[in-house]
Design brief:
The complex is a heterotrimer. Chain A is α/β, with parallel strands linked by helices. Chain A has a domain of 165 residues: P-loop containing nucleotide triphosphate hydrolases (Rossmann fold), CATH 3.40.50.300. Chain A is 31% helix and 25% strand. A 6-stranded mixed sheet of chain A has the order 6-7-8-3-9-10, sandwiched between helices. The longest helix of chain A is centred in the middle third of the chain and has 13 residues. Chain B has a two-stranded antiparallel sheet with strand order 1-2. In chain B, helix 2 packs parallel to helix 4. Chain B is globular. Chain B starts with a helix and ends in a 12-residue tail after the last helix. Chain C has 2 domains: 220 residues, no CATH class; 74 residues, no CATH class. In chain C, the strands form 2 sheets. Chain C has a two-stranded antiparallel ribbon. In chain C, strands 2-3 form a two-stranded antiparallel ribbon. In chain C, helix 2 packs antiparallel against helix 7 and helix 4 packs across helix 10. Chain C is mostly helical. Classes of the chains: A alpha/beta, B mainly alpha, C mainly alpha. Chains in contact: A-B, A-C, B-C. Chains B and C meet through helix 3, helix 4, helix 9 and helix 11 of B and helix 5, helix 6, helix 12 and helix 14 of C.
Chain lengths: 259, 289, 375
């Protein structure tokens, strides 16, 4: 099992440092004591089954969900208490689960929203139109009228237009045909070449293994396994993903479920 | 000919209802707030003009120069404090809070200004009219208010569709979290929407005070008319609100022509009929859920 | 929607599956004590006319009338999630019902239930119209309906038009007898209203309402007939407000359209319920007591009692949405009208944990169970 992505050099600086993060939905723990760190230029994949806490983790990193414990640092600066809009300005952008385009706005207006508080950087409308020429042609179409794959592309571009340093991708592949997913993921190398760091969440482990430089498996909110695609064995991954009777805690800070 | 006159008066008063209703429509469209104190805010505007314009030596016709900015500021502040706090609870709380405000406002106005009727004195302007025939009379004031309503609705439409801030307000209305992810400070944008809504309701209140005698409890009836205009025209449609206001205005004038006692009743019945036959309203983009 | 008073189960699994937890309906107070308290209250209230002055009896009638209205509004908003600002429609219909029946020779006391019934019957077609709107639009639509009812009734000159009409029948009684008759009529209506609301909430319908309040979509998909439940509550609230309006007509011997159809009734019942505690049976009772204490002390200050009461209601809606009783109930675990289902350990006295930071009780985890992600 080898990923095609090249990991950044060991010397690359740490961009995102998450320590002992916990988050709850009401009284239900969704993320439990998760720690992770991303070096600049990395493609870090968080995998796990439905309900493992992946989306809550990303929402907490983007500031939409208030953590109950732990810290989030971006480039050494503590952003744990910042609002989503302040985090965007600090350089964290999230492509949320389910696309979440603005249905009553046109394609072009959705993109313009992406530029609202943009940082300086390589992405601008002309570049987006180069990547997806149809977005220029169908600029006045309502976003609600787009297909799922087209909506995902617009959602991705909307986030890119803010010129983030760290791009959070929540289940890009959800509900899309494999060929469409393939096309969207094919953009990833370009984004990395532009200096982005990517933290993505995937239910599709095969997809994650193909693109990621580092994998992080969650089960019921807790870390069960971390490592590079090369290091990880299929059997361990299955146990970490689905849980199992002989499960043992693997990663630091990870807590195995009572068996 | 009296019917033609009723029709014309209905259209003119419809413009006033639309001016009244567009703030109600905006607050609901953006924040999901049904502002039950909307009518009372207009009455406050009239009382503020009554007090402030003579003190500042401003002719009453120009009182909007003072009152409208004051209301815009008040709207922003109220949204950022009380209304946001109640929104944070639930839409249900917002409804109860604005209703409470409405009752408190009316009774404070009663205590401060007594129950006497007042009017904003604009001198002879009130009587000037254009008379194409002996039975048809078009007061210039009504005509000006209709034009103001159309201009306000048009500007609002342009603001929402063409400006950065307007676009973000629509984005926040569509999906607040997604807009936050693009850098929107939704509380600030809500404040701007409230400022605009309050500015329009101040204009409506001043127009009302110039048209007719008003007292502390005039807000209730105006809230109902504005609401009827919004629902008849279709919730979520600004121009629909203008048409709704005109339909309501015509219904009232025609009803009043039959029997003065039926004026308001005719409006209510048209509203209830629309609700039964076409709950989305004439131009509604969504059901009133 | 305020958070439900249904105690949330501490674990995602059904309480029955947890083994260590038991669900029971009730208060911390034993049932026999509650029954004794209830009977005691009824006995005192039944004896009151013999103990207090004529003026105080009249005051108590007004108290009962507002209490009935508040109990009804609490059913609508606190339990069925419908904010009506048009309950004065049914108050007015009840009052005019008494007037019309009395003018046609129906004994005045007998006309009270009939007039209430008239209001309830009319509420059914009204619900067909106003139920097309939800939330705040529903609220204003009910208001329009009450204004419409007032305008229609005001245009009928046979019942006094806009100026009102005296209610015939009871005027010949001595003041003392009249006071007693109206007091006991109001007393019976209050007992029926409070008892009926309590019975309704303990029935299957009450469970549907509680489920809807916690999670409407979930309740719908579980097969709850939400619309039907709401309609029943709407009609019951019209019945209750109709009875309250009928009592007003009887006790004041005069019906006038703008007075009985005044939105001030809605203001009072809403404020009373918010302050006492919306979504609790005790709230409207406590709120009505607070209201009368305040009103009596500010009787000479014009509209100030409404200003103070309204401001208080707004503040409570935002910062203490469960009102006085809801706040007390949570602190003390008291409930005079046991409605909520409590989850407690089978043995021992410790209560389930509430704060998210504390560990959840031990739960056997099924293969599919786990923390939810996403909103």
């Amino acid at each position: 099992m080898t990923g095609t992505a090249t990991p950044p050099a060991e010397s690359a600086p740490v961009l995102l440092e998450v320590r002992n993060l916990s988050a709850h939905h009401g009284q239900l723990p969704a993320v439990r004591d998760v720690s992770l760190s991303l070096r600049a230029g990395e493609t870090y994949a968080v995998i796990g089954a439905n309900g493992a806490g992946k989306s809550t983790l990303l929402r907490t990193l983007a500031g939409l969900h208030r953590p109950s414990a732990g810290t989030v640092r971006l480039d050494g600066v503590d952003v744990t208490r910042l609002s989503p809009e302040r985090r965007l300005q600090a350089g964290i952008a999230l492509v949320p689960e389910g696309r979440r385009l603005f249905p009553s706005l046109s394609v072009h207006e959705n993109l313009l929203v992406g530029t609202y508080r943009a940082r300086p950087g390589p992405f601008h409308l002309a570049r987006v139109h180069d990547l997806f020429p149809w977005m220029a042609e169908r600029r006045n179409q309502k976003a609600a009228a787009l297909s799922g794959g087209e909506q995902q592309a617009v959602a991705l571009c909307r986030a890119l237009l803010a010129n983030p340093r760290l791009l959070l991708l929540d289940e890009l592949s959800l509900g899309l045909a494999p060929i469409i997913v393939e096309r969207i993921y094919a953009l990833l190398p370009q984004l990395l070449a532009d200096g982005l760091t990517v933290l993505l969440v995937e239910q599709d482990v095969g997809q994650a293994l193909r693109v990621a430089t580092h994998l992080h498996c969650l089960l019921e909110g807790s870390t069960t396994l971390t490592g590079t695609p090369d290091e990880l064995r299929q059997e361990d991954l299955e146990v970490a993903y689905f849980g199992g009777l002989h499960l043992e805690p693997v990663a630091p800070g990870g807590a195995g479920e009572e068996a | 000919m009296v019917w033609v006159n009723a029709l014309i008066q209905g259209i003119l008063v419809g413009g006033f209802y639309a001016l009244f209703a567009c703030g109600l429509s905006l607050l609901f469209g953006v924040m999901g707030i049904i502002n039950l104190a909307h009518g009372d805010l207009a009455v406050i505007a009239a009382f503020v003009a009554l007090t402030l314009a003579p003190a500042a030596h401003v002719p009453m016709v120009w009182s909007f120069v003072l009152v409208v900015p004051l209301f815009a500021l008040g709207g922003y502040v109220l949204q950022r404090t009380l209304l946001q706090a109640s929104l944070n609870r639930s839409p249900f709380t917002t409804l109860l809070v604005t209703f409470g405000l409405s009752v408190v406002i009316e009774n404070v106005l009663l205590e401060v200004f007594t129950s006497n009727g007042q009017s904003l004195n604009i001198g002879t302007l009130i009587a000037d009219s254009f008379n194409p025939t002996t039975t048809i009379s078009v007061p210039y004031l009504s005509l000006v208010v209709l034009v103001v309503a159309v201009v306000v609705l048009g500007s609002l439409q342009l603001f929402l569709s063409r400006t950065r801030t307007g676009r973000m307000i629509r984005a926040v209305a569509d999906d607040r979290e997604a807009a936050q992810l693009s850098g929107a400070n939704y509380q600030h944008l809500f404040g701007i929407a409230a400022a605009i809504a309050f500015a329009t309701v101040a204009l409506a209140g001043l127009a009302y005070g110039m048209y007719t005698e008003f007292s502390f409890d005039a807000g209730t009836a105006n809230l109902l008319f504005a609401f009827e205009a919004v629902v008849i025209g279709g919730i979520g449609s600004l121009w629909g609100t203008l048409v709704g206001g005109i339909v309501l205005g015509i219904a009232q004038q025609v009803g009043g022509q039959i029997n003065p006692a039926y004026q308001i009743l005719a409006g209510h019945l048209v509203f209830l009929a629309v609700l039964v036959v076409r709950p989305r309203g004439l131009f509604g983009v969504r059901a009133a859920a | 929607m305020p958070a439900g008073t249904l105690a949330a189960p501490p674990a995602p699994t059904a309480p029955a599956a947890t083994g260590g937890w038991l669900v029971r309906r009730g208060s911390r107070l034993p049932a026999w004590l509650l029954a004794v308290l209830a009977l005691g209250c009824l006995a005192v209230l039944a004896a009151l006319p013999a103990l207090v002055s004529q003026a105080d009896t009249q005051l108590l009638v007004n108290f009962f009338v507002l209490l009935v209205m508040s109990v009804m509004w609490n059913l609508l908003a606190g339990y069925a999630g419908m904010v009506s600002i048009g309950q004065q429609a049914f108050i007015g219909l009840g009052a005019y019902g008494v007037l019309v029946l009395a003018m046609n020779g129906v004994p005045t006391i007998a006309s009270i239930p009939l007039a209430a019934l008239v209001a309830a019957v009319i509420s059914l077609p009204v619900s067909l119209v106003v139920f097309r709107l939800r939330g705040g639009y529903f609220a204003i639509a009910t208001w329009v309906v009450s204004d419409t009812a007032m305008l229609v009734i005001s245009s009928v000159s046979a019942i006094g038009g806009g100026t009102g009409h005296a209610v015939p029948g009871l005027a010949s009684l001595s003041p003392r007898a009249f006071g007693r008759v109206t007091y006991y009529a109001a007393f019976v209506v209050v007992v029926l209203a409070v008892g009926g609301a309590y019975a309704l909430l303990r029935s299957r319908l009450g469970l549907v309402l509680a489920a809807v309040r916690d999670d409407e979509i979930g309740a719908r998909s579980a097969g709850a007939r939400v619309l039907r439940a709401r309609r029943v509550v709407f009609v019951v609230a019209a019945l209750g407000c109709g009875a309250a309006g009928a009592l007003l007509a009887v006790s004041q011997l005069q019906v006038q359209a703008t007075a009985v159809f005044s939105v001030q009734w809605s203001a009072e019942m809403i404020f009373v319920t918010l302050i006492g505690g919306i979504g609790t049976m005790e709230g409207p009772i406590l709120g009505t007591i607070v209201f009368y204490l305040l009103q009596q002390n500010l009787a000479n200050e014009g509209a100030w009692y409404l200003i103070i009461f309204g401001t208080l209601a707004v503040a409570i809606a935002i910062w203490a949405p469960k009102g006085i009783w809801g706040t007390l109930e949570r602190r003390l675990g008291l409930s005079l009208f046991p409605l909520t289902h409590r989850v407690g350990p089978v043995a021992g006295t410790s209560r389930p944990p509430r704060s998210p930071g504390r560990p959840t009780p031990h739960v056997e985890r099924g293969p599919g169970a786990g923390a939810r992600s996403g909103p």
